[in-house]
Amino acid sequence: MDVYRIMYTEHARERMGKRKISRKEISHAIAFGTPIEKDENATPYPCEVIFCQVGSRSLYVVVGTNHADRIKIVVTAYESGRRRKERKL
Fold first, then answer.
1. Between the CA of residue 34 and those of 18, 31, 60, 87, what are the distances in Å?
2. In sequence order, which ranges of 1-89 are alpha helices (DSSP H)?
3. Who's near 40: CB < 8 A, 6+ residues apart?
4. How many beta carbons lie within 10 A of that of residue 45, not counting itself?
5. CATH code for 5-88?
6. Where exactly are the structural domains of the chain?
């Protein structure tokens, strides 16, 4: 398995705090989750949405990947159904 450092955008840190999603849960999702969407043409880096069941939580993590520097950049993270609920607010 390739080893990448994980970095977090300010938006990701804010949302993780609000949603009580830990860095440990994010690391687990990146390492063991299933990519369900990919955009290789996204800029500045290709990105993907990763789904992972972490304990009792169904998590989605949006990650950009800087392959040259071996960095995964977490853009945001949310639980199943969270995105739909937030849009209604």
1. 24, 9, 10, 24
2. 10-19, 23-32, 82-88
3. 46
4. 18
5. 3.30.2310
6. 5-88
Size of the chain in residues: 89
Tokens of 87: 């849009």
33, amino acid identity? G
Residue 82 has pLDDT above 90, yes or no: no
C-alpha to C-alpha distances, 52 to 25, 44, 69, 88, 89, nearest whole angstrom? 9, 25, 25, 24, 25
Q: Which residue has the tokens 């996204």?
A: 42
Residue 88 has pLDDT above 60, yes or no: no
How much is the pLDDT for 65? Answer: 97
